Each structure stands twice: as structure tokens, then as C-alpha cells.
Records
---
Amino acid sequence: MTNSKRHILNGYGNGQRLLAVLLLITVSLTTSCGGGLQSALNPAGPQSQHISQLWWFMLIVCTVVFVVVLGVTLVLLVKKAQGSPDELPERESAESQRRKAFIVVAATAATIVILGAFLVDSFLVGRGLTAALDRKQGVVIEVTGHQWWWEVRYPDVDASSIFTTANEIHIPVGVPVTFTLKASDVIHSFWVPNLHGKKDLIPGKVSTIWLQADKPGIYRGQCAEYCGHQHAHMALWIFAEPREQFDEWRRNQIQSAVKPASDSEKRGQQVFLTSTCVTCHTINGTSAGANIGPNLTHVASRNTIAAATLPNDRDHLASWVDDSQQIKPGNRMPPNKFRPEEMQALLDYLQSLK
Ligand code: CUA
């Protein structure tokens, strides 16, 4: 093969690569960003609506500015290219100087007006975010960020109705929800783009954010502040449900854990209560009452484990219990080398905790 041929083929490869990258960007814009379960461009509540309107406004204005600037630059370049290179520039007439000065002043004025419009709109959106909901009513949920999972507590005036879960938050649709946010170790950030912007969780400080989901659905959230090794594996889900469905879920969560029914489940409970599991986890209705790891009272009612890292099925649960360090290195759960019989019984028990 000649050098020139190789050259052409290389160029063709680069072109293809560029095309693939463009395609990837388009796909990710139209799926994950545009219409996905975790997308600020797919607003499902009043606050995210405000934020996405601001985003579109800025995008459209900036695109127009970009196209105009590029267009003018191109026209000038073409004009310059058409002129003869040897020609000396004529002395500028007063008229031409005035015209140029006018263009500079007009462009500066346009810039100030555009930035002013952005400022005013951002301010109005900020006001809209706080005014959109009356936070005195509705549901209150306490979220505590841990490395690397979310503790979720539903407080209640009736102490027997308080319960704690992890990583999966259920809320009723059309009702304002107040989140009080805390952190136990380092700074995390609570971000569910379909519903609201980001809010930091700061150790030693309680911050508040309130939001509302107008459309039922499942919305993915993500820790949005780098918080260590497994920051990327610190996700959460919000399930926005009709009121009756939410109340039903809540009634179930308030209950103590179901008693083990089969022999294997009984054996599994015994394994749980006599191993290191109890030094970190709580299962209400048993002697396990530690608060270092997620509350497992209704672990089988959740769809995911490990902060929305893995689906909550038997195989993944088994790998997680056996050696979670292989999956999410650095997390606080040590490997647990159970005998196969113990492991199967433990899985039976954990999977019965609906
Ligand atoms: Cu928690 Cu990043």
C-alpha cells in the first residue's frame, strides 16, 4: 500500500471516529439527558420546570449569539480572501470609522442587555423555586448522606409511625415534600434532576430543600458532590406515587420485619443475628439495632442494593454479602465468608423481608 493510500484510509478512519462521537453525543442528549429517568430536561415538578425553562432560554440565546458571531466572522474572512494580498489598505474614511465604532457600541450594548436578561431570569427562577410550594404542608423526609449511601427517615408526630429506609425514597404525587438534609461524614449533594436542582449535605448543618412531583414516575438521583472513592456509586431513586399507593407503602414500612416462616428463613435469621451483620444493621423486631449500614427491616421491598448500584436479586445480594469490596471497594461492609448452607439460608431470610 502506498503512503498516500494509507493516508486517505487513516483520514477515513478519523472521519468515522468523529461521526461515532457525534452520534454518541446525539444519542446521549436525546436519551439520558433529553428524556431519561435522570434528566433536568424532562421536568416532572414545578421547580425543575423553572430550571429547565431557564436552561432552554440560555441555550437558545447563546446559540443565536454563537451563530451570528460565526456568520459575521465567516463573511469577513471571505471578503478578506477575495481582496488582493498585495493591495495596501486605503486610509479609512471618517464614515468607515464611524460605522465601525457604531458596530462595537451596538455589540457591547447587546451583550449587556443579554447578560441583564439572564440575570433577571435567574433571579426570577430563584424566587420561583422558593415560592412554588408551601412547605408548611405535605410530607417531611430526613435524608442523611453517608459514604456511600443515603439514609432515609420518615419522621412522624406519632413515634410508632417513624421508620427508616435507604436509597429508595417514596413520595406522594402532587404534594410538597420537604427534605431535611444532613451528612454524617463528608459533604454530599442531593440531586434528582427531574425534580429539582442540587442541594449540599454538610456535616454539622441541616439544610432544607422542598420539591413536588406532579407526574407519577421513578426518578433517579445522584450524589453531586465528590465525596470519595465511590462517589459515582451513590445513587438514589425517588418513586412518585399516587397517594393511596404511597400510604400503602408507608403502612408496610412502619411494620416490624416479618417473622421468618420456613426453616431456612429461621436458620437465615439465626445466621444474621449471630454474625457481624448485627454490628452495622437494624432489623426492627429483632435484636439487630445498629445504625452504621442501611436499615434492612424491609430490604426485600427495595429494587436495588448498594445505593442503587445493583438490582436487588438473589445473585447480586449473594455477591454483595460475600464480598462487597469486589463490587464497591472502600465501602464499610467487610467480606463475609459464610458456608454455602449459611449463605443460602441468609439469602432466604433477607429475601423474605418484604
Ligand atoms: Cu456522596 Cu458524592
---
Amino acid sequence: MEIKKQTRLRGELTVPGDKSISHRAVMFGSLAQGTTRITHFLEGADCLSTISCFRKMGVDIERNASEILVHGKGLHGLSAPSEILDVGNSGTTTRLISGILAGQSFTSELNGDASIQSRPMKRIMTPLQSMGADIVSIKGNGCAPLRITGKPLQAVHYQSPVASAQVKSCVLLAGMYADGITRVTEPVLSRNHTEIMLNYLGAKVTSQGTTASIEPEPVLKAREIQVPGDISSAAYFIAAGLLTPGSQILLRNVGINPTRDGILKVCRAMGADITLLNVNEEGEPVADLLIRSSQLHGTTVEGSIIPTLIDEIPMIAVMAAFAEGTTVIRDAAELKVKESDRIAVVTEGLRRMGADIQPTEDGMIIHGGKPLQGAKINSYLDHRIAMSFAVAGTICDGTMDIVGGDCVNISYPEFYKDLYSLGEC
Ligand code: S3P
């Protein structure tokens, strides 16, 4: 995928629906009574994997141009799949569905692509096993493929060693099938879409600090779910708008849940001109984001903000390379176990462009402001790497060639079209 330099980005864009919320809408809609209507659903490959898994368990899910209709089966209405559940590239599908499968009355197997088969699953196996679940890594390496046989589950209070919404959600979902109140405490608060949506559908989930608790056997009732624009997808256009001189762009209807909005805080700390318009805080908060090009400088990104921007770090690193001064990113060792090792892969790509970047055990140090050139960048089939370097390619001189650039279809199938829709080439 070859990327062209852009000048002056102008206009408006509605980014695709939030990936995390789209997954949950299908999953929880499948367990609800009645038909859940989902609008602005993300039609990316990851969320389509979730649809395919639930269809294999007997859920009737209709897709048309403007909406998804999930004809829910209730908490105990899923049926045994006759084939392996294919989770594709999706960590969210794998980890959340495992919590649901642990409480069913059947055995199922999950598997996905090469990336999924190397991502850590012990982080969900350990808490599920402590609840009495029968979940095994078939190859014995703590990764997918997984085999899960439903069992009666005991409620636990799980102290998670990682701030991970996937782990928290997995345990809470298993908690729906347990014999009492299940609690999860995490070191730092991670995204809370599961808690918000389960409550919206009628479950009793409470949150206090970094502890979330769920009462068992909720009766979930189908309701309309309007998926906000994905702030993780908006991040590429925030960066492009800030870094391309003379730009002014409006990103419509972007989710700004405080457990996801770290990118806005970091951009502002770097000197960004971002204005929130039409803020609506009912349910999942949303706003329109007005982005004007800005002179950016370095900052430090660390501590409790990390889970609120974990998927945006590749884009932040690229922005830091264009900014003046030094940016330090720490407390982000989780980057090593994403769709690729994002510390290593970002370092490789930015160095190829001529940037001064040092990888560390839990982040990176970037001395920005060096002249950057287009280069041949390997995405390692990681969608967030491909999109971050595509944005870099619209700003730097020379040709940017992204190897494996098609992987953007995981979370943003129309990405390249949208990227060119705002510019004057
Ligand atoms: C997600 C949680 C995060 C995030 C991922 C989506 C979710 O992963 O990186 O893209 O939908 O719950 P972790 O839970 O591993 O931090």
C-alpha cells in the first residue's frame, strides 16, 4: 500500500462504530430476550468474527446496510456449535466469549489466526479456572486453540494483575452464570463498556474504584444500541489533522468515554488545538471533535492514563516523532502482547523513517523533530501499525510503502478512502 503526501486537510468525517462496543452489542444481544437493533455497527473483520461465532451457537443475526438485528436467545439459550468457533484476529472475541462459554451446558472449541494463537490466554484461564471452569489450551502453551466445557461456576473476587477490559469482562460474563456476586479488581481502571452495556440491558453491575461486581442470573432485555464512533479510529485523523499544516477537520459523533479518552489528554499536553462540540453524556458519552493543525511538543505518557489510550500508542509514537522535543512512554508493557509486539514494531518502523527512538521494557523514548522520510514499513499484519504509518506517510516526504496494509480491514475497512477524502493531494 503506497501512501501519498497530503496538504491541508479540510472537511468532516464520521468514523466507523466503536469496535469494543460493537462486539459487546452482538454478544450481549445474543444473551438478551428479544431483538437488539444495533446502529453504526463496525463492519470490520473482528466484529464479523463475533457475529459468526454467535451464529454458530444458534443465534439468528441479520445484517443489512444500516443496522444489525440480533434475535437474542436469553442467558441459557445458546446451542452447542457443530464446528470450531473461528475468532479470526480478535482478542476481544476470544477472551469475552470464553467467559460466556464457561457457563454453558456444552463443550466448544475456539481458534483463530497466527496472531491469536500466540496471544496470552492464561490471563483468562486462571480466573475462570478459579471459578470452577473447564478451559484448556489444546496445545498446552497457554494460547488458543482453547477447549471449554461448561460447568457450574462459583463466584470469586478476582484480583487481576493486569489492567485489561478483556480480562475484566471475561470474569464478569462468567459471573452471570455463577452462584453469587462476582467481583474483579484491576490495578488501574480499564475501559468500562461491558459494565455500561450490561446495566443498560438490565443486569446489576456496580463499580467502585477499580472493582466491578455483577449479580448472577441477570435477565437481559433487548434494547436499541447506537454505537458511537470509535475514538481509536478517530485517533488517526486527530493526528493527521494536527500534523498537516493548515488543516481543520470535524470528526462527528466520536465516543469520549473517560476510560478511552487518553488520546485527547495526551494531544492537549503536546500542544494540540482540539475542541469538543455537541457533547452528549447520556449512556456512552459522545462529541464532535474539531481538530486544527498545531505545533506539537514532547510529553510523558505514564501511569493510570495508559489503559485509556493503549490502542493509540502507535499513533502517539508517530506524532511524537514529528513533534519537537522528547516523549517518554512508560507503564505500557501490554503493548508487547497486542496484535504484534507494538514496542518492537513501532521502533522498527520509525527507525526506518529516520526517527530517534529507543525501545524500553515498558514503552519507548522518542526524541522528536528529526527529518523523517517515507520508507518500506512492515505492518506485521497489525491494523493499528498500518494505519499509524499510513498517517505518517501523508505528512513526511518520500514514498511510504506499507507491507500488509490491507489488514486495516480488521477495524477500519474504509480507512484509506477516508484518509484521502479530506486532503488536497
Ligand atoms: C479491548 C480491550 C483492550 C484493547 C482491545 C479491545 C476490549 O485490550 O487493547 O483493542 O474491547 O475490551 P486489553 O483488555 O487486552 O487491554
